[in-house]
Write a structure and sequence with these properties.
Strand order of the largest sheet: 1-2
Helix content: 55-70%
Largest sheet: 2 strands, antiparallel
Number of domains: 3
Low-confidence stretches: none
Mean pLDDT: 82
């Protein structure tokens, strides 16, 4: 839809209620969502969180199919997590073959953890899809600004985190392009054992690292040429101010998380 196969780190410039929210509100929501999803352990809570994510995707005018693309880069990790829990979690075995076994507890725990990881990724994807890099930097810096009195580099950390998020899809696209080019030249990633497969990755990793360092150097030169000297004395075109929708969203977020947490601990 928006011409990119990866959703992590992307910003989709739309005029939706979620896009218009203050970035600090969205960052706080993402933070409490991550904490709550790590605490919760039952399917009903995860189902409710899935409903909230669907609602946010609808309000942000982003198709759910595009949002699901954020899971693609971590698909191997999700499958590996599921397989490890399936075969190595003790409990009531329903299948055994040698040292391998599948237990009911392993199936339940594996699926629960994978669903939790998926929800965490989707919440983070909504944050990056609806918040521009500049807004994200300003929001993180505002939230960390109380620590400046103790010498904490709030602006530098916010800038570093935002640049890292911004270049995730760029690096993934670069890796995909290099992989296709090396495959066309006859590179084989499948043959051989584990050590050989690791060696086969060298033609992919070396140019990826070289291009990453080159891109970082170009970015540093571009920032210096624009007289960037950190956040000291820096002014902003848009000053962040909380509005009524921001307060409503915060009230909804904290109420929802509180209700789920109270239900879990009771």
């Amino acid at each position: 839809m928006w011409g990119n196969s990866f959703a992590i780190g992307q910003y989709v410039p739309l005029n939706s209620p979620i896009h218009r929210l203050d970035p600090r509100v969205k960052i706080v929501f993402a933070g409490i969502s991550i904490i709550d999803l790590f605490i919760l352990q039952d399917w009903l809570s995860f189902l409710l969180w899935g409903g909230v994510i669907l609602l946010l995707a609808f309000l942000s005018h982003i198709s759910f199919s595009y949002l699901l693309k954020s899971l693609r880069p971590l698909l191997f990790l999700l499958i590996l997590t599921l397989v490890l829990h399936f075969f190595f979690t003790p409990g009531e075995y329903i299948w055994e073959y040698g040292f391998l076994h599948i237990s009911r507890e392993g199936i339940s725990k594996g699926l629960l953890i994978v669903v939790r990881l998926c929800l965490l990724i989707l919440v983070t994807a909504i944050l990056t899809l609806t918040t521009s890099p500049v807004e994200l930097t300003d929001g993180i810096e505002y939230l960390l600004s109380p620590l400046k009195r103790w010498g904490f580099p709030a602006h530098e950390l916010a800038m570093m985190m935002t640049i890292a998020l911004r270049f995730i899809p760029t690096l993934l696209e670069e890796a995909e392009r290099i992989l296709k080019a090396q495959t066309a030249r006859g590179m084989d990633l499948e043959s051989g054992g584990l050590v050989q497969k690791a060696k086969n990755m060298i033609p992919l990793l070396v140019p990826l690292f070289v291009n990453s360092f080159k891109r970082a150097d170009e970015l540093a030169i571009a920032m210096e040429s624009r007289c960037y000297r950190g956040g000291q004395g820096r002014t902003r075109l848009r000053v962040l101010q909380l509005r009524a929708p921001d307060y409503y969203f915060l009230i909804f977020s904290f109420s929802f998380v509180t209700l789920l947490s109270v239900r879990f601990f009771l």
